[in-house]
Amino acid sequence: MPEPLGTALARSPTRSTPPLHSLAPTPWGSWPAPPYHVMHIEASAQRMQPIPPRLVVRHLQSPRSGPHALQLDRGECVAIRGRSGSGKSVLLRLIADLDPPSGGTVELDGQPREQFSGPQWRRRVIYQSAEPAWWAPTVGDHFDAAQRLRIVQMVEALGLPQTSLDAEVLRLSTGERQRLALLRSLAREPAVLLLDEPTAALDAESTQAYEDLLRRQCGQGLAILWVTHSDEQARRVAARSLVVDGDWTPSSTALPCTGRASRPSWRSACP
Predict the structure, then answer these.
(1) In terms of C-beta density within 10 A (0-12 exposed, 13-18 middle, 19 or more buried), how is residue 251 classed?
(2) Which domains does the chain show, CATH number per domain?
């Protein structure tokens, strides 16, 4: 008859570890020190590299605007404000590599823009104007199968029917085109979204749905520069504001708390 397992272990001549009750407490508490090499957390932390900002702009300028300097973190939405003609749209187009700069640098996740091809950069940093361009007759022609699947739940979140994805672009209102253009941008999973007055043609309900969708996208790491002429919208969507004033660098301003607890800023600067 075979011996009970515990008895066999107690009699085994190969057992080199003393019984558990005979071990003194160790720095790990009442448990014995593990019989393997433990990673030294302090040394590992020293080797860890800091995560770079999502977007860094330094001395970016053109004959029409700048120089500009700003930093945008992952998941952050920053409002861009300023009078009409001050260069807000030019700034976004310079960042998106749609207008040629006369000086300055732009980095994405610590990588200089020069390390990307033009199409690669514009897939990662997407500029969306107030009236986006469409290059095919129907909305659906602008999405591949994977992209369409990616946005299927976002369509109704913006108050649009699923059939709008198959609509003819020329039959859509300006507000419908603005919302569908946002879906077209999000379907490409950009790292940075540059929005130029994207809700100018929307009513209050559609604007709220638009802002709510982008708030959730920021929660997943999307970074946004949002041009708006509305101080109220800037307070809703951003914790800080950059003011563009013609030929000088934007200045950062912390936005005050609006007192609307049901609609806090996405990255609130309020206590």
Answers:
(1) exposed
(2) 55-254 (3.40.50.300)
